From TrEMBL, chain A:
One Pfam family here: ATP-synt_A
Membrane topology: Multi-pass membrane protein
Species this protein is from: Mesorhizobium mediterraneum
Gene: atpB
GO cellular component: plasma membrane; proton-transporting ATP synthase complex
Statement: the UniProt record of this protein carries the keyword Transmembrane helix: yes
Functional summary from the UniProt entry: Key component of the proton channel; it plays a direct role in the translocation of protons across the membrane.
The name this protein goes by in its record: ATP synthase subunit a
Record keywords, A-Z: ATP synthesis, Cell membrane, CF(0), Hydrogen ion transport, Ion transport, Membrane, Transmembrane, Transmembrane helix, Transport
Transmembrane segments: 33-51, 87-111, 117-136, 148-170, 190-216, 223-245
Automatic annotation (TrEMBL), chain B:
Any GO MF annotation of the entry: proton-transporting ATPase activity, rotational mechanism
Signal peptide: none
Gene: atpF
Function: Component of the F(0) channel, it forms part of the peripheral stalk, linking F(1) to F(0). The b'-subunit is a diverged and duplicated form of b found in plants and photosynthetic bacteria. F(1)F(0) ATP synthase produces ATP from ADP in the presence of a proton or sodium gradient. F-type ATPases consist of two structural domains, F(1) containing the extramembraneous catalytic core and F(0) containing the membrane proton channel, linked together by a central stalk and a peripheral stalk. During catalysis, ATP synthesis in the catalytic domain of F(1) is coupled via a rotary mechanism of the central stalk subunits to proton translocation.
Name of the protein in question: ATP synthase subunit b
Family as reported in the entry's similarity comment: Belongs to the ATPase B chain family.
Length: 252, 199
């Protein structure tokens, strides 16, 4: 078990808490699922309880909820226009889910839901799926104009269309990998530096003196991770808004 | 893929190919899966179905909760506040308009009162002037009358005096004539002589 302490990968292990197996698929309630539930519970409780007084002049916590709401609302309106506001609940819940999941992951011993590619890919697939389904529903085959930019010479068209298609297909990949890689790398770095503190201080007086350096580094990294946690939630939401804009106005 | 049939039966829940034996063992419920075969946990496909399912459940519930409960509430709070602010601004604008109107009315009334006061002052001034003028004229007339009377009296006195002066001159002249010439001159001659001298 001693080796586990400094193993930076250990924090990403999935442990089954309630084993469930249906139709040959392993659908166990794991620590990952537990933290998804925790994320949803914390975010819902915060938004619900802070706004329960419905004060005309908001308190601190109520303003936080209102700020998050207006922040995402303005973001969506800027990117996709007033028509885009029908996706407000989707973008807001994505933003809050990712943000709270990232922030919860910063607590020691807590599992970070967004450090698993399948979770971020699931969210990205939801976004792209919404874009594709809504795009075809609203514009029919006109949605394919998304891949044909205006004012391109005919002999260049095949190349441009190919590039557009590739860029569209890579969107869910980049969207999910960006969030996943940021959270994974951040937590590994944090764990490595914290591991240095432990292993150095085991070396005696000199080691304890030397461990100050990685400790300071770990503190600084924690601050950085806090920023990254917010920033990645923001980036995820902004890109979602931009992709939704494509679904609403495919003709560039 | 190419496991023996006996082994395939043993790991009944048809694990995807690639990871043989060990995968089957981890699924038998020791509670520490992934670790056993040393795969990087986020890339372990064995955890995908469970994570996707729970993500769908939790995120789906979260979405519904936000859409049905939280967002109408927060949106409502913000709308109410915006309405209230607009209302208050309107109210303030109306009050300001009223205040401006009151100031304008006050100033107009002030200007009117000033012109009225000026008119009254002018009128009073004129009246006083006229009165003074009348009084002056009356006094002047009275003075003129008195002056005329005095002058008349003076001239009558003067005339009387002159008359007496003639008599005295006649007497004096007769006496002088008597003394110098020694005869008596008639009264009428003396009177004529005095008259001619006096003229």
């Amino acid at each position: 078990m001693a080796a586990d302490k400094v193993d930076p990968i250990h924090q990403f292990h999935i442990n089954k808490l309630i084993p469930i197996e249906i139709g040959g698929y392993d659908l166990s309630f794991t620590n990952s699922a537990l933290f998804m539930v925790a994320t949803v519970a914390v975010a819902s409780a915060f938004l619900y309880l802070t706004t329960s007084s419905r004060s005309l002049v908001p308190g601190r916590l109520q303003s936080v909820s209102e700020m998050a709401y207006e922040f995402v609302g303005n973001m969506l309106r800027d990117a996709a226009g007033t028509q885009g506001m029908k996706f407000f609940p989707l973008v807001f819940s994505l933003f809050m889910f990712v943000l709270v999941a990232n922030l919860l992951g910063l607590f020691p011993y807590f599992f970070t839901v967004t450090s698993h590619i399948i979770v971020t890919f699931g969210l990205a697939a939801l976004v792209i799926g919404t874009v594709v389904v809504y795009g075809f529903m609203k514009h029919g085959l006109g949605f394919l104009k998304l891949f044909v930019p205006h004012g391109v010479p005919v002999y260049l068209l095949p190349l441009v269309v190919l590039i557009e298609v590739i860029s569209f297909v890579s969107r869910p990949v980049s969207l999910s990998v960006r969030l996943f890689a940021n959270m994974l790398a951040g937590h590994i770095t944090l764990k490595v530096f914290s591991g240095f503190v432990v292993s150095l201080s085991a070396l005696g007086t000199l080691g304890i003196a030397g461990s100050v350096l990685p400790l300071a580094m770990a503190v600084a990294l924690t601050a950085l991770e806090l920023l990254v946690a917010f920033l990645q939630a923001y980036v995820f939401a902004v890109l979602t808004c931009m992709y939704l804009n494509d679904a609403l106005h495919p003709g560039h | 893929m190419f496991v023996t049939s006996a082994f395939a039966q043993e790991s009944a829940p048809a694990v995807e190919g690639g990871h043989t034996g060990t995968e089957g063992e981890t699924h038998s419920g020791t509670g520490v899966p992934a670790e056993a075969h040393g795969m990087f946990p986020p890339f372990d496909p064995a955890t995908f179905p469970s994570q996707l399912l729970w993500l769908a459940i939790t995120f789906g519930l979260f979405y519904l909760f936000l859409k049905k409960v939280v967002m109408p509430r927060v949106g409502g709070i913000i709308d109410v506040r915006n309405d209230r602010i607009t209302q208050d601004l309107d109210h303030a604008a109306r009050l300001k308009g009223e205040a401006d109107a009151a100031v304008a009315a006050y100033e107009q009334e002030l200007a009117e009162a000033k012109t009225k006061a000026n008119a009254i002052g002018q009128q009073a001034n004129d009246a006083a002037k006229m009165e003074a003028e009348a009084a002056r004229k009356k006094v002047e007339a009275a003075l003129d009358k008195k002056l005329g009377e005095a002058e008349a009296r003076i001239s009558s006195i003067k005339a009387n005096a002159m008359k007496e002066v003639g008599t005295i001159a006649e007497d004096t002249a007769s006496a002088i004539v008597e003394a110098l010439v020694g005869g008596k001159a008639s009264k009428a001659e003396i009177a004529a002589a005095v008259k001619s001298v006096a003229r």
